[in-house]
Amino acid sequence: MPLVRIDIPNHYSNGFENQVGDLVYEAMLDCLKVPEDDKFQILTRRAESELVKPGSYLGIEYSDRLIIIQITLNEGRTTEVKKAFYAGVVQSLNSALNIRKEDVMISLVEVNKENWSFGNGEMQYGPDG
To answer: Check: CATH 3.30.429.10 for 3-115?
Structure first.
């Protein structure tokens, strides 16, 4: 059900975006309990001018290597689950890929289940799905 968008600066090596996507997916399985094989991701490499950000926000200093992760998913997870997910993603990216914890921004966009069609023009998670 989740749709993941990951925007990565061009500074990173080719294939890096796939590694990030895999780690985010693993955290989704572990923390968010998404179904197996539910891996829909849009991985985009961006020029520096396409990722507009402040030098710092809320006391967090960003570098030119900021990764932005946006996930659209069904509503209903608790605040504790979301906190665990954020921490899990950042820890995983930091440990496996040496990404600064300050350079990972995550946004969750929650929607009702009937806002999805996975193909065939059908509402798979709707009242009749």
So the answer is: yes
